[in-house]
Write a structure and sequence with these properties.
The longest helix is centred in the C-terminal third of the chain and has 35 residues. The strands form 4 sheets. This protein has a 5-stranded antiparallel β-sheet with strand order 3-8-2-10-9. Strands 1-11 form a two-stranded parallel sheet. The chain has a two-stranded antiparallel ribbon with strand order 4-5. Helix 19 packs antiparallel against helix 20. The chain is mainly alpha-helical. It is built from 26 helices and 11 strands. It is elongated, with a radius of gyration of 33 Å.
Length: 780
């Protein structure tokens, strides 16, 4: 082989910027059993990919053997490939799911403390398993026939199903147990729990499902598949909580209500005994399904700390409102500095060998090797592509493209000059047309390249099997994911030669507006063929820009959904408006804190990897897009739960302020427990080694804590105290429910007098719907 050709290969494989001491041996896998291996083996793991996996395992085994046999060897081997990189990403996501599962054990401990009955944890476990199982059964045919499901979608699906199942079970079972403690029978307690908390669950689930559904308008399959899975998980959690839990309670009433010694007895089983409690105690485990439990000498309940906090927020409402506004200012200022990255590294585990190898190769050889931008040229025919005229015309087109990109970059204010040497393919190398030869000085080495078969070897790598299409590597001199790099990609895309009349290729349909695709190109009176610019950086850039550009519209859609559903559910005008204000405050603080931590590095001094900026000193673009819907849903979940209780007490005759304080006294601990459970579940993501999971986990943890301990305890009482009492519930009027409040039977003969206010309210709704249906029947 000529020395000049060896120097060309050496300069590529052993770059001079590292002193020629680090090099690469590239292994190109063309096909496997005749099938294309890239997408199928990287994403889908088809059966014919086994040789690829075996080869990668052999390489990894050889590396380990060499390190053990020659520990002092100066040669360090590192293997990296796209199957390994994506396996790294998948392992990181699966590890995050495993951590969340382990955290569920801690969540169940909190649940057991709140329910005071270990047996009822079985109901929660059944809800979780049934909800996740049914969602997976629904999503499987969706992934097969409707849409491609991203690898992150199952993790999102499981997390949402877990969170909602626990929340809904907690709301329903705590109300059921409270009614049992008040002396009602199992049937009565369950009816009241379904009439009150069932409304909370339905409204919350419908709102959250619609919030996730609104994200289907985003143009990235990553977001849409996660949104579809999450919406399905929410709906299944609602259905399971309102059907399976009551069914199991009525099937084994004594078993699930026997709570002596937290249920760690044989009461309610064939081996247990049923006895009445002694005087002054509650005989819970001795009651039948229809016989009320008799409570003797009930003890007065001491007002909780949450009621005190809510009352203090009401008394100093103007000052508290100003304080909350001032707290939001620094986070809003940080949010104005928000930036995002589109690289793959935030999806990869920081401790995985593939991540280190990927970053090392990117540093040595640049992004052209790890995340290349390529121009696919589909020639009119095999004969045309083999001709010298086609090769020269294509080369001249690329040389002119470099000039146009440079001009466009200068017009946009970027000091960037693209050269003809930035294109490398079968027709061009180092800026020169290979049809005119490959010269080093005055020596043309092209005959030697053909003689030793090097040109044919490269042609096999860069062309398809039929020799009708070839790819050209397009080099960028800066970071592709930087501002200049993205401007360069847009300039290359816009500068592709476009004919005045676009013709569709034979045998297929192509959108003429596609920016990356030119269906018909011509240069030097030679038909070049179709041009297609592609690459992972382009996909990431387009996905990020399109998604974040549409996020304001998604936000408006979510706000409209919240207003419509809450307004229709509660029948008031200010409750949905107040809910939107509270959610907006929470989102600003949460995302502002995320920018402070992962972009500005405020907590970097702690030395905690999960709270330190990742590569690029910015948030990964998917993180806020995924977190926003979950944060809105959880925030509304606790908001609706509290406001349902507020409406109960307001309709029973209390004024608005007293209704809020009483509701916090009853529901404040439950909301706090739900927040702690969600914090444990999402906090497990902070223990992951995947940066994007750390970011999402941080956002969800901060948002949940704000919702449970600030929004429901401080913000809602403060905002409601700033508005006149009647205006909070306008256009409803308390006088319309006065008969129910004093226990007198209304004129329409409503049943249920003597029941709690929420139950009467539910029955009043049923009466209204019954009258409406009866009127509709007469009309028809």
């Amino acid at each position: 082989m000529p020395f000049e050709v060896q120097m060309v290969a050496h300069s590529f494989l052993f770059p001079s910027n590292f002193g020629g001491q680090e090099g690469m041996i590239a292994v190109h896998l063309v096909s496997c059993y005749g099938h294309a291996i890239y997408k199928e083996c990287v994403y889908k793991h088809e059966w014919f990919c086994e040789p690829v996996a075996e080869l990668l395992e052999s390489w990894a085994g050889y590396r380990e053997w060499r390190m053990e046999e020659f520990p002092e060897s100066p040669v360090d081997l590192t293997f990296v490939s796209y199957p390994v990189v994506y396996e790294d990403i998948i392992m990181g996501i699966e590890w995050g799911m495993a951590l969340s599962t382990v955290a569920t054990i801690l969540a169940f401990i909190v649940l057991a403390i709140m329910l005071r009955n270990i047996r009822q944890l079985g109901l929660v476990a059944c809800n979780i398993l049934t909800g996740i199982g049914t969602t997976l059964l629904i999503m499987y045919p969706v992934s097969y026939y409707v849409m491609d499901v991203n690898v992150c979608a199952p993790a999102m699906l499981v997390a949402v199903a877990l969170a909602m199942s626990i929340d809904y079970s907690l709301f329903l079972l705590t109300r059921f147990n409270e009614e049992r403690l008040d002396g009602r029978s199992i049937t009565q307690s369950l009816e009241i729990a379904l009439a009150t908390q069932g409304h909370t669950i339905v409204v919350s689930g419908a709102t959250l499902a619609l919030c996730f559904t609104s994200m289907l308008v985003l143009p990235t399959s990553t977001i849409t598949s996660m949104a579809a899975g999450a919406a399905t998980a929410v709906l299944q959690s609602v259905l399971v909580s309102l059907s399976l839990t009551p069914a199991l309670l009525l099937t084994m009433p004594r078993f699930f209500t026997a709570d002596r010694m937290l249920g760690l007895t044989l009461d309610g089983t064939p081996f247990g005994t049923y006895r009445r409690a002694s005087s002054g105690t509650v005989a819970q485990f001795g009651a039948t399904i229809d016989r009320p439990t008799i409570i003797e000498n009930p003890q007065p309940k001491k007002e909780s700390i949450w009621a005190h906090l809510g009352r203090c927020s009401q008394r100093g409402a103007p000052v508290m409102f100003l304080f909350l506004a001032l707290v939001m200012v620094p986070f809003a200022m940080a949010l104005t500095r928000f930036s995002y990255v589109e690289d793959l590294t935030p999806l990869m585990q920081t401790t995985h060998p593939a991540t280190k190898a990927f970053i090392s190769i990117s540093n040595i050889y640049g992004q052209d090797l790890t995340t290349p931008v390529q121009l696919l040229i589909m020639a009119p025919s095999q004969k045309a592509m083999a001709s010298r005229e086609w090769s020269l015309a294509t080369c001249h087109m690329l040389q002119d493209l470099a000039t146009k990109v440079t001009d466009r970059m200068h017009e946009e204010g970027h000091d960037y000059t693209m050269t003809t040497a930035d294109f490398n393919g079968l027709m061009i190398f180092r800026g020169g047309c290979l049809a005119d030869g490959l010269k080093f000085g005055v020596i043309d080495v092209m005959p030697a390249v053909h003689m030793y078969g090097m040109y044919d070897m490269v042609a096999d790598l860069l062309s398809n099997r039929n020799q009708t299409a070839t790819q050209v590597y397009v080099h960028c001199q800066v970071d592709l994911f930087s501002e200049v790099g993205e401007a360069w990609m847009r300039a290359v895309r816009a500068s592709l030669p476009r004919p005045e009349v676009i013709r569709q290729p034979l045998g297929g349909h192509q959108d003429a507006d596609s920016a990356n695709y030119v269906p018909y190109g011509r240069w030097d009176d030679v038909e070049i063929g179709a041009l297609h610019l592609y690459g992972m950086p382009l996909e990431q850039m387009d996905g990020a820009q399109y998604t974040l550009r549409r996020m304001p519209y998604v936000g408006l859609a979510i706000a409209a959904i919240v207003c419509i559903i809450l307004g229709g559910s509660f029948g008031t005008a200010l409750i949905p408006v107040r809910a939107v204000i509270c959610i907006a405050w929470m989102l600003v603080v949460t995302f502002g804190a995320s920018v402070m931590v992962y972009q500005l590095g405020y907590l970097e001094g702690l030395g905690i990897q999960a709270l330190s900026p990742s590569s690029g000193q910015a948030l990964f673009w998917i993180s806020p897009s995924v977190a926003v819907a979950v944060l809105v849903g959880l925030g509304l979940d606790y908001d609706i739960f509290l406001m349902d209780s507020v409406m109960e007490h307001w309709q029973s005759g209390k004024d608005g302020k007293s209704a809020v304080v009483t509701s916090l006294d009853q529901a404040g601990t439950i909301i706090s427990a739900a927040g702690v459970i969600m914090f444990l579940a999402f906090g497990a993501l902070l223990a992951s080694t995947t940066p994007v999971l750390n970011q999402i986990g941080f956002m969800l943890c901060v948002g949940v804590l704000l919702d449970c301990f600030v929004t429901t305890k401080v913000t809602i009482p403060c905002l409601m105290a700033l508005v006149p009492d009647d205006a909070n519930f306008w256009p409803l009027k308390q006088s319309a429910t006065r008969e129910l409040a004093i226990g007198r039977e209304p004129s329409f003969g409503l049943e249920g007098i003597g029941q709690p206010p929420g139950f009467r309210r539910s029955l009043s709704w049923k009466w209204k719907y019954g009258v409406a249906l009866e009127h509709l029947g007469h009309t028809i």
